Amino acid sequence: MAGARRERDIHAATLELLTEVGYDGLTIEGVAARSGVNKTTIYRWWPSKDALLGSAMVEADVLAIRLPDTGSLRGDLESLLRQIAALLTGPDTSPVVTALLGAATHRPELGEVVRRFFADRLGRELPMFERAVRRGELRDGVDPATVMDLLAGAVWVRALLRGQPPRPAYVRETVDLVLRGCTS
Amino acid sequence: MAGARRERDIHAATLELLTEVGYDGLTIEGVAARSGVNKTTIYRWWPSKDALLGSAMVEADVLAIRLPDTGSLRGDLESLLRQIAALLTGPDTSPVVTALLGAATHRPELGEVVRRFFADRLGRELPMFERAVRRGELRDGVDPATVMDLLAGAVWVRALLRGQPPRPAYVRETVDLVLRGCTS
Amino acid sequence: MAGARRERDIHAATLELLTEVGYDGLTIEGVAARSGVNKTTIYRWWPSKDALLGSAMVEADVLAIRLPDTGSLRGDLESLLRQIAALLTGPDTSPVVTALLGAATHRPELGEVVRRFFADRLGRELPMFERAVRRGELRDGVDPATVMDLLAGAVWVRALLRGQPPRPAYVRETVDLVLRGCTS
Amino acid sequence: MAGARRERDIHAATLELLTEVGYDGLTIEGVAARSGVNKTTIYRWWPSKDALLGSAMVEADVLAIRLPDTGSLRGDLESLLRQIAALLTGPDTSPVVTALLGAATHRPELGEVVRRFFADRLGRELPMFERAVRRGELRDGVDPATVMDLLAGAVWVRALLRGQPPRPAYVRETVDLVLRGCTS
DNA sequence: CTCTAACCGAGACGGTACGTCGTGTCTTCTT
DNA sequence: AAGAAGACACGACGTACCGTCTCGGTTAGAG
């Protein structure tokens, strides 16, 4: 049963190299060399580069988001969005996150990791919306998932497809627009 | 200046292979074999797989969107979103589009293609918003780019990150939510 | 000192595999799998594939020759040669024997096994020649070792280097030629 | 059509390494490194280690034998045998020759090389026997192939299986014995 | 209607990484 | 004491593409 003895070393090397050389520059041989482990050892435990990346990311909790509780939905959403924007643009996190999300579109293995993560995060965000409903900040019939799609999607499009880091003003603007739609 | 005599063949083979075997399965050698052209001929004209892909996609106008004019902003936006959703999920288009957008995150060359495309499309969408302003469907101070970020981003997140094809009801819901925010 | 408890199983598996897949196809891992023994167990008792092969062959007495006593040197030699030819060409024995003799040329360990075997067999053949001397079938000054070199060598060259199985007529011819030289 | 540009380098490296590290120590990667050629280049032209070895040996004419014409069959045969003995025991040639002959027993590809060589050499030796017949040194009904089998086989058995280099006295003894059988 | 420049095919190559197999070693746990 | 179980470093395997180079042909438009 057991598992790889040097798993931590291997995961660490994987993420280091990912940030340094990017998804395509990342090779199993490179990870082996960096982690001081033999190539075959990696193949023993992970069937593919993607599987390795996936487990490294899960273990490292790369996409971790602190769930805010600021007292208002507006504050909570702005906090969330700023964190997402930081993940997508921060020098440390951006290579890893974009690699993951980029590859997820054509790599079933990583797609699954991402889907699981999004489902899980949505579950953890629900209380935020429940608090908002109790405070009367949200009219009935608004699906939290849709709200998160809109806001996270906007930041994502801005940062990665338009190539414009989402600044605080932009975050406020999008949250404001969506919140108006959620109350009116 | 000129250009490759067999450019059309090569572009066609590129897109065919892209849909068949995906971004990573796509190789210059494969394109050469499929298009009946020698490998060196491809290298003569395109410095990289991404450059080739980029030019093939531009030429094929893969991301083409018909700009609607339905008489109402709601109708226009729903039409746009449905088209985007179709691109992201259609059996013919999805492999190409996701390959492009996935690779764009870590491939400067393709990122540039995407950014240019988005900027251009936004420009072509502006008249739609100007008509809406004239019709009084949009309060002042709403940035069309932000609206498109929100809506396109939501569809994108749904389709590619959550793995749930955006159905018509979802499209209506998001447009409704955003439009409420645009008028209130 | 002791010895492996499962030595017989291991030896059996070794020879089976040798006949099935040949010298180069024979692997320690294969022997372990076939004999139901752990790889480390084999390494505990034999330092190398060759050592294992050597001991398996010695134990199995693969090169065993019945020493004939037909009443005449001609009959004795023909009997011996036929046995050698059978060893070199028989479907069961040939893979083992040729593996051993082939490897002996560049594997000290197996070379030693072979040399010991040849020396031993010569010793057991000597009485045959002594009987012949007593019967006056052999002039003085003929070295039995040379006679055996000539005859065994001829069969060996035929069978393995020329790729022509030595037929009975051939055996008779060579024995006749050498015997003429031994009496004249 | 063409062929490998660096064929000579590769063949040279092959034979050098064969003498230095033996048949089993010889690797394609080693040959590539020694010859300054890339591994794939070797695989482009030779499907296996054996094929490479075979062509290297054919080209190098490793088993070359000068055909003597001393005026007597005895002289011719002694010359031949001394050459064979030298091939089998000389510091330069022995590794190559024993590797070839050892591997020939279980490597079809090399077996074919050896068989072709022996057939060819026998053809070139025939005139020697025809001269002997004309001189009356050979009775009718003696097959030259058998004579060569006996003599070459004896030297071979001595050198490689008994591990005793065949000295001149031994060569004379075997030739004498066989020649007696050929005339009586 | 040629001639010349642009383009192409072919063949060979050095190179990186792949994913696999087998080696021989080591430690720990089980009879 | 012997063996089973599992992890490992290591070396080589044979393969796929990469990107580059040289050489010799083909094509097609400008003179």
UniProtKB/TrEMBL annotation, chains A, B, C, D:
SUPFAM superfamilies: Homeodomain-like, Tetracyclin repressor-like, C-terminal domain. GO terms for molecular function: DNA-binding transcription factor activity; transcription cis-regulatory region binding. The keyword Transcription regulation applies. Keywords: DNA-binding, Transcription, Transcription regulation. Pfam families: TetR_C_11, TetR_N. Residues 4-64 form the HTH tetR-type domain. Residues 27-46 bind DNA. InterPro entries: Homeodomain-like_sf, HTH-type_TetR-like_transc_reg, HTH_TetR, Tet_transcr_reg_TetR-rel_C_sf, TetR_C. PANTHER family: HTH-TYPE TRANSCRIPTIONAL REGULATOR RUTR, TETR-FAMILY TRANSCRIPTIONAL REGULATOR. This is TetR/AcrR family transcriptional regulator. It comes from Amycolatopsis suaedae.
